[in-house]
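Handout, section B. The chain below has 328 residues.
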Amino acid sequence: MTSSPSAVVRLPGSFDVQRLEAELEAVGTSQFKAQRTFDRSRVTAATTVDWRVLPLRSPGGDPERTDPGGPGTVEYADTPWIRETPYMASILDSLPTTLRTARLMVLAPGAEVDEHRDYPYGPGAGWVRLHVPILTNDRAASVIDGQKQQWQPGTFWYGDFSLPHSVYNRGTTNRVHLVVDCYVNRALLDLFPEEFRNDIRWTEVLLNPDVVPLSSEDLDACTGRVGVPAAFLQGDGPEALIAGGAPDLPAQLRRDGDRLLLDVEGADAIALVHVGGGLFRTAGWTTERTVHIHPVDGGLTAGFRVRYGSRVAEETRRGDSRIPTAVA
């Protein structure tokens, strides 16, 4: 199998390896904690692989969160660790987009991560994953879409991790990368080589929209009880939403001060972020997953939409009476 041209891209620029190594030594790898993932609205158990993380940015700036985050009640913020890594912070600040997570990730000697896909990732999902290698050895590598990658310290890379990939460290020293998840916008894509940009089908790209605040009256009009398609919360693609099968989950759209929450029975609450025209993305996520709310007499309609590039599915539900504003 050969890699497609856009599966792996070296980005312009290089970084000072000595400064990167000095900051890594300053924080100390003993502070790193086991990698976790995020699945179906909750953080999963720690991995059994010796794959550890120190978050420089995380959901809500929580220094204990080693997962990449997902739909929830908070956006992403710097953790206290970023004060210990000013050079790495300057690299993050130089990226012309909103950042999701930034994590120092250590793969210990002898550790291997089996082939898997990270979904949803890539321009079609509205965010991409970038790597700055800091430490490596000649027996450590990633394999992306069948192609072995041995990125050297101080270089800057994009990989399409929605494709099958694995990683291993068969050497005797740690492999450490700074791994950054970024929302996609035009300025970020302008960093990519011209060949990559020329190959992009722009109809397949989800660009990160600005937040559009709503008045108190408009927020009140978006509250009510409504059924939520189960597949909307499950992290699968548009096809799963269309397939349906599982019964709707009872939920409430309610105000919490100056924001709107989606409270689904049996799941954690999710904050909704208005991006215009009654369209809301979920906090901590892109417009890959949105709720389109239309107030109507006596209630509302809510369109639950899942999109990956130009593939779109939407299920509309009718809600009933409005729910009073929560006490902030």
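Note. The radius of gyration is 21 Å. Compare this with the example in section A.
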